[in-house]
Amino acid sequence: MGDNSPKKKFKLFDSQREGPGVLKNERKLKYDLYSYFVRMWRNMSKLVSVNLLYVVGNFPLFFALIAMTGRFNISSTAPNNPLFSVLHGVMLHDETPALLPLLAAMGEQTEISALGPLALVFYALSALVIFTFGIVNSGTAYVLRNIVSGDPVYPWSDFWYAVKRNWKQGLLFGILDALAIFILYFDMSYFWQTTGTLATNIMFYTTLVCCFVYFFMRFYIYIMLVTFDLSIFKLIKNGMIFAILGFGRNLLALIGIALISYLNLIIFSFFPSLGLALPLLITLALLCYTATFVAYYKIKDIMIDPYYEKLNNESMES
Model-level pTM? Predict the structure, then answer.
């Protein structure tokens, strides 16, 4: 996973790092709603860069978007009325003119389409996102962590700095992450459609709880991946612990994420072009920034600060 030394992993604390420095009183900002909006506003252009990194880095998804346009589907027609097949069977045995009014009423056709060979190829190519997902998340998590911590930020160089040092672990966990999201989505869809019995109701709500817990775990895992030298198992274990310990803050982040998403939908309903463009420009970065803002300070309090306190105590004793 790259250099394992604490100095390399704790790059955000490197006071010798080149750059223009930070704004006056930047590091005095606390972990509150005011600081959330101040850091967001001061780093808006950098958040746009982060959003572009998400979009361009996960380019295989564009193949799915092309396939979803329907231009490569095979089109056909079918009767709109379900009774047409019965009428057709009757007319095969008796072509009496009396049935023609029924044919006119029930014979209305509707257009249907099925995936064509090229559409299937595009969907298959979009599955390659499983190999870019974790790597891109690792790089952007490093940039977002630095924005939240108040460290000088250079989105493009910081992104590649993190990717080069964490691409192996990012790739591995990204595959596991994408599979976990797919399985949870599939289970939710299945049990949503089959609720009604005690067993399916229990499975549905159990899966729903798992979705919330894993959603909260993801706030922390990628930040820890680019900050500490931990195994995949410990990343997942710590992520689960943080999801529970920071439940209140995580819930606030979830509300913020829901509000940002809802605002985007409102804009889309009135200005469709702008509503479609926003996820490509800023919405994704704002969602991830909200999660990072909540997760970073919890990690700092429980893992980062004690590490340096222990390091200082050892240096004083020696």
Answer: 0.81
